[in-house]
Design a protein that fits this description.
The chain is of the alpha+beta class. The chain has 5 helices and 4 strands. It has helices spanning 9-15, 18-21, 23-28, 40-45, 61-79, and strands at residues 4-8, 30-34, 47-51, 54-58. It has a 4-stranded mixed sheet. The longest helix is centred in the last third of the chain and has 19 residues, at 61-79. The protein is globular and about 35 Å long. It comes from Enterococcus rivorum. Pfam families: DUF1450 (PF07293). This is DUF1450 domain-containing protein.
């Protein structure tokens, strides 16, 4: 069982496609995209995703990926 990461397609298209190319995230999380997550103001300003329902915000796609990796590792430690 993997943690769930939810993303807005519009936010990913803007500058976050590297989320899909990150091998660690692909192996250790289930990534679901939605056409819109009704966070338009946030989407226009920042990179973001939901990790197990928790909003994760970052200034860059690289920062978002690093934050998600930390969250995944913490989730795995808690679940094992």
């Amino acid at each position: 069982m993997n943690p769930l990461i939810e993303c807005c397609e519009q936010n990913l298209a803007k500058n976050n496609q590297s989320l899909f190319s990150d091998e660690f995230i692909n192996v250790n999380a289930d990534v679901v995209t939605y056409s819109c997550m009704n966070q338009c103001s946030l989407c226009a300003r920042n990179n973001y995703a939901l990790f197990e329902g928790e909003l994760i915000i970052a200034e860059s796609s690289e920062e978002l990926i690093e934050k998600l990796k930390v969250m995944i590792l913490a989730w795995q430690k808690e679940m094992m």
